[in-house]
Design a protein that fits this description.
The chain is mainly α. Helix content is 69%, strand content 0%. This is Oligosaccharide repeat unit polymerase.
Length: 435
Amino acid sequence: MGNDIFVRAILDNWFYYGAIYAGLLCLYLFLYRKIYWGILDPFLITVVNLTGGAFCVYFLYSDQTLKPIYGWSFLGTEIALFLGMTVAAYIPVIKFGGHTSKLEIPTRGISEFDLFVFVVCTAYVIVEAVNLKTVGVVLLNSEQNHVSAYEGHGIVRAFLVSYRSLVIMTLYYKILYLKKRLNLFELFICFVLLLDLATSGSKSGIVVFFVTYFLITYPMVAQGRMSTIKISWPLMVVLFSFPVGIVMISVGADPSSAIQQVGLRLMSSGDIFLLGYYDDVMDSIQESSFLKYAFYPGWGTILKNLGFEITPPEPIGVDVFAYYSGRRTSGANGRYNYLAYHFFGLWGGIIYALIIGLLLGYLRSIYKNLNPINMNYYSFLFIVVLISCSTRLVDDLLLFGNTSFWALLFLTVSYVVAKILYMVLQVITGSKSYA
């Protein structure tokens, strides 16, 4: 089964399959309505991806090419994930931050947080300069996109994506929680950020500003301590029309064709099932160690650079695509259902999905109940990074490992550097300590 057969079948029966997809989307949105927090919650995108996966599996079933064991595995892992996230909401959470409602903010001098912001922003500028020298402006490269341009420069991309996110989170924290204005250097960083995202070649890059704002403020909004931005229906229509407009501009499609292309992209987002739920494809997958697959991202790279002979795991999505094309330049996202069956079989995969659901649900419960205004800024940003990456446990385990590891590592390194600089500053000036 290839993507071309899938596309032809969908186009030949557009209204039928469109209705099936719409029905599945409504079902998933209804089932998870008490779990996702709003339109800007990254988990809502995961719910949409879950719908795409279910649609692809349904397509295989309707085409009578779905082996029963794969169908039961998919259904079992979907139920287990939902059950895990639902049960996690009833588990007593560890509360961070206590009940204090006042954050002590220094009124004069340079605080440790000021130095932390400087370290993060300076590192970002340096990384951006290295990125421009090694990769260049992706938007001006007609032969590559924002993913393929970094082949051979993965470490540069890890630094750039991590520090880009950290800068946005840190500046939001300063404005929203410390109630402090940005200085000239930080305003310059905002300008660099806008240029960076505008020229990155990523059509959804600008959304990171809105998603990060939502995540930073959500604990306070959920507890009624901060008001949220109301999104009007006209604005929602504009947001949902944005992908269609991008397609119209980029390929010169008319509105009807653009809507169709966006719909096809959503329906085929579970392409790893569409292409990979076959015995011969499963047998072609190289990696057999789940521990290596789960923990190589980040730690494996460091150990390899230290001289250890560690062969990185081949992404399972790349193996699936290579089976059909013979090329190993791209691949589908390794959805948790597919990884569950490959590594653990039918029943073990269901237990794995249940654990993922419990972990993800419990982490979200902790985040919803924490008190940011009485937490150390490092602790709060640590949890924000973790919650922003956590949905990738469902979408792609390798992506979760890479994004969370590097972002948390650079956050910690920047924090330690800021602490050292602040201690040195205290010794020099003899000033009072406050973080």
